[in-house]
Amino acid sequence: MDASTLASFALIAAGAFVAGGMNAIAGGGTFFSFPALLAAGVPPVMANASNTVALWPASLTSAWAYRREVMKHRKWALILIGVSFVGGITGGLLLLATSNAAFSKLIPWLLLVATALFAFSGQVQKTVAWFKARCGMAASNEPGSIGGALFQLFVAIYGGFFGAGLGILTLAALAIQGFKDIQELNALKNVASAVNYTVAAATFIIAGAISWPHTLVMLVTAMIGGYAGASLARKMSAMWLRRLVVAVGASLTVIYFFKTYY
Q1: Do 111 and 165 touch, CB atoms closer than 8 A?
Q2: Residue 142 CB coordination number (10 Å)
Q3: Is residue 96 within 8 Å of residue 209, measured between CB atoms?
Q4: Residue 225 near residue 17, CB atoms below 8 Å
């Protein structure tokens, strides 16, 4: 193995480690791992599929690290598992059937909406509650709703297709539904991401769309990064973790606008 090959594998290993950690903390890890695969010479669609498989175990370790917080909302966790399962399969099949070219132009707009939704989730939640009251709909003390589950289904389809900003979109959807504790938000987000990655990864493996030499290297470092990121996130204050989520979302939005339109 020559020096350039070693350098490319070192690059994707580092990108996967950071991606695993970022997905556990706030989302946006794909921004680090996907470009690393492209830089290593992996074709775009195969890089996208390989990236999903590589980050799959990291999503499992992140969800496991947050298991105590997840148990506080068992019912909603089961709903998230169901919609993430369906959405992950649907999105994965869409990726295999279409190119990324047209959809990539939507990514910065989706990230912009997701970041804004999360940053102003409190105000949006109040607006939704006001609208429900005006329509004579009964208010509930329990977070979550059928509408929220449907929104999460669309988020899961997006995650199976590409995945950049999946964590931020999920956090935004959960926050609007009335989940307030940032650690519980992160826990449910990690559960949804774990299911989404699992079914999408299975779809890509069955379809033979994976570059295994690169994926196997990333599997290990992403899993280490995912557990480390989840452990760090549980120790961070709610205020700073929320600020980090918004900062990651805003940064991704600017970067993807620049990459897409300039």
Answers
A1: yes
A2: 10
A3: yes
A4: yes
Rounded to 5 degrees, what are φ and ψ at 60?
A: -70, -45
Which 8-state DSSP code applies to residue 71?
A: G
Please work out, in degrees rounded to the nearest 5, the angle formed at the alpha carbon of residue 216 by the alpha carbons of 244 and 13.
45
d(CA 58, CA 190): 10
Contact 25, 241 (CB under 8 A): yes
Extract the tokens encoding 154. 């669309």
State yes or no: pLDDT of 252 exceeds 60. yes
List of residues 6+ apart from 250 with CB closer than 8 A: 115
How confident is the model over 195-225, as pLDDT tens digits? 998 998 999 999 999 999 999 999 999 889 8
Residue 242 CB contacts under 8 Å (≥ 6 apart), including other chains = 182
CA distances, 262 to each of 254, 256, 257 (Å): 11, 10, 8
Under a CB-based contact definition with an 8 Å cutoff, are residues 20 and 222 in contact?
Answer: yes
Residue that the structure tokens 């470009």 belong to: 35
Helix axes 166-176, 146-161, angle to 10 degrees: 180
pLDDT at 76 over 60: yes
CB 47 within 8 A of CB 15: no
